[in-house]
Amino acid sequence: MSEAFYTDKARIRASFERAASSYDSAAVLQREVSDRMAERLSYIKHQPQVILDAGTGTGYGAAQLRAQYPEAQVVELDLAHAMLCASRERQRAGDGLLKKLFKRSQPWQVCADVERLPLADNSVDMIWSNLTIQWVNIPDSVFSEFERVLKPDGMLMFSTLGPDTLFELREAFGGIDQATHVNQFIDMHDLGDALMRVGFAEPVMDMDKIVLTYDKVRDVMHDLKAIGAHNATRDRSRGLMGKQAWRRVEASYEARRRDGTLPATYEVVYGHAWKSTLKKKGNTLPDGRQVIEFVKPGSWPGKV
Predict the structure, then answer these.
(1) Structure letter (DSSP) for residue 134
(2) What are the EC numbers (predicted)?
(3) How many CB atoms lie within 10 A of CB 225?
(4) How many CA atoms lie within 13 A of 93 on its CB side?
(5) Domain tally, the chain
(6) How far apart are alpha carbons 181 and 191 in whole angstroms?
(7) How far apart are CA 190 and CA 248, in angstroms?
C-alpha cells in the first residue's frame, strides 16, 4: 500500500474518542457484520476460557460473546477510552438490580493499540475482532501480536474491509485535487498471505458485499463521521473543501442514484485461523509453499 494512503493513528484515536457518543446511532454496518460473525462462530467447535475482543467499540460484539460463552472471561480492548466507557455504560443500563448484585464476572477493559497488545504470550484462547484491522497499515504487525498472545490451538476470528469499500465515494472524489479523500483497504488475498507469514494454521477467508442506501451524499459523510470512520489517511486534505468542488462530488455521486436512493458499498472480508505449533502436511505444497483455503460466501467450515 502506498504511504499516501497510510492511516494516521493519532487521528484514528481522536476520531473514535469523539464518536463514542454518536457511534451506536450510526453503526448499522458494524452490528450487521457482528451478527454475521456470531452466526459463523456458532458452527465452530471451540470452548474458550479467555476471549479478547480486539477493537470492542461500544461493546456490541462483547455482549454477543458473553451470551455465547457465559463461562468465559471477555477482555474488551479498544484504542479509544471513550468507547470503553460507552461499553461500560451499555452494560450497566442492560443489567437489572439482581444481575448487578450477583453477576459472577465482569469483562475486563483495556485501552490499548492492537499492534502493541499489553497481554502476556499464550494468554487468551480466542481473539474476536470486528471491523478493526482495516485501520492497521501493515497486517503482519497486528497478526503477529494476535499470534503471540493466543494459546496453542487458540482461534482468531475477524472481519475487515476490502478495497471495493466505498468505491462510489472514492470515484466521486476522483480528480477533485491531489489529496486522498477515502481510506484505502487491503485485499483479502494479501490478508491471507499475512496470516500464513506469521504462522497461523488453517486460515479460511471469504467475502460479502453489503450495500447501505442514503438519501443524500452528505448523509453518507455524516454516518462515517458519526462512527469515527471518516478519512484518516496521511495525505488527506487539511482544509475545508470549496463549495464548487463539493458540488462536483455530489453531481458525480448522484449519477449512481437508483430507485430514489444512493448506494454505499462495503466489501466485508471475514477470516478465521488457528494458532498451532504443528505444521500440517496438508497445508504445504511439495516445494514448501503453504496453501491458503478460500471459500464461497455462505460456506463457513469449522474445526471439528
Answers:
(1) G
(2) 2.1.1.197
(3) 16
(4) 9
(5) 1
(6) 23
(7) 34
